[in-house]
Design a protein that fits this description.
The structure is a homodimer of 233-residue chains.
Chain A lengths: L8 E4 L4 H12 L4 E5 L2 H12 L8 E5 H6 L3 E4 L6 H7 L1 H4 L3 E4 L4 E4 L2 E4 L7 H8 L4 E4 L6 H4 L11 E5 L2 H15 L3 E5 L4 H18 L4 E5 L3 H8 L1
Parallel strand pairs in A: 1-2, 1-4, 2-3, 4-5, 5-8, 9-10
Antiparallel strand pairs in A: 6-7, 8-9
Helix pairs in contact in A: 1-8, 4-6
């Protein structure tokens, strides 16, 4: 795939904290966003909330998941893993041929805390790719804490967004989007199959959050900002 | 388990780059170390190499894996995953009752690069715990690049060592060791089962290393050094 439009972004699961937070940061960076939800009215309400937040610099609208997807070239999947396969399958026609960014974290919780769920496809991102073969799937945004994304005062520029995928052009596009979301670095983490490592790492972050009463995120050492920028440019 | 001696550390796989590097950093911090190897002569040679490096502040010796383990209260497993179960099983008597720190990364490599291997027990750390039920297993040190550990000039204090385990006292002991290894932060990452996330994350780091021609490592955002130190103290 040689080119991706830089137009609007649809966020499937756009009324959940992760989806809404990513949408807010994208809109602040000037990307038109359409929040998708199973319930178009809820999506419209959530889009109104986002429009009232400081710094929004692009249109934010709400629609059904399917309408949101149909109107966008780039689609963020920001849904819980529970029900993920069914939802992606139900949107398969609309998702065909699109750039799909999987932000899904397959996690379980029990009295021992959070843990990574076993996923037959390897990862939620690979599961989506298997369900919509004509889409180009990239994994990203697994580790950004939703409350920080939604906090207008929170500076995320010290957090790395790790991006994985098998299509170089699609990955390059998502690296740009990711840098726009945080104002910091986006890192090419390798092949799509490494989503199997990125997704459940969130269980470690949640565990650390509980232990240290914080909102932790990921940064890699050994990378200069300049080196990463050069690669993205 | 209420108390762990702070005496010498045995490093099973002490002639490999990861084991040798961890041993060097421990010896620099004043911990007596015994390198273990299948071949005691190779272990003796490697210990001589380490003694010649700058800053070594404690005895460094070499022995067979079994002798090394028998003489130490704390044992680092720093071996490749290939052959891990057989090796641990062969040392089970010697490992009984000890504090065992698993540094093992179950990784595969193919033309697509590195990837996390599927481990029936969940992780190498849990595999070791299953093979030696009387040992207390903690996971740590998965993400420190061996060439940096062995480079006397390399400053590792900006890297986080993520430590997981189910025994609070054992984990506290390893958090101290880990901070000694890097001179920086050690982070309580949660339950031992989260080794299933920490171990294969190394595949992402290796992928990033190749992409950006660096030696990457992990740091978490959202944790102040003070907060972590207070928890350790």
């Amino acid at each position: 795939m040689s080119d991706f439009p830089t137009g609007g972004v649809a966020v499937v699961g756009g009324t959940g904290p992760q989806g809404k937070g990513l949408a807010y940061r994208l809109a602040r960076a000037g990307h038109p966003v359409v929040l998708g939800s199973r319930d178009a009215d809820r999506a419209a309400d959530a889009s109104g909330e986002l429009r009232s937040l400081p710094g929004v610099a692009a249109p934010v609208d709400g629609a059904s998941n399917e309408d949101a997807v149909r109107g966008a070239a780039t689609v963020l999947l920001a849904v819980p893993y529970q029900g993920h396969a069914e939802l992606v399958a139900s949107l398969a026609d609309a998702l065909a041929g699109k750039l799909v960014v999987s932000c899904v974290n397959p996690l379980g919780f029990d009295k021992g805390g959070p843990y990574g769920l076993s996923v037959a496809a390897g990862s939620a991102a690979e599961e989506a790719a298997g369900l919509v073969p004509s889409a180009v799937v990239v994994g990203a945004f697994h580790h950004l804490a939703a409350p920080l994304l939604l906090d207008p005062e929170a500076d995320l520029s010290h957090e790395d967004v790790l991006v994985c995928g098998d299509d170089a052009d699609a990955k390059a596009r998502v690296l740009v989007l990711a840098a726009d979301v945080t104002g910091g670095r986006a890192v090419d983490a390798g092949r799509l199959r490494l989503a199997a490592q990125l997704e459940p790492l969130t269980a470690v972050l949640i565990s650390v959050n509980k232990r240290y009463k914080t909102r932790s995120g990921v940064a890699l050492t050994g990378l200069t900002p300049a080196a990463v920028k050069e690669e993205v440019a």
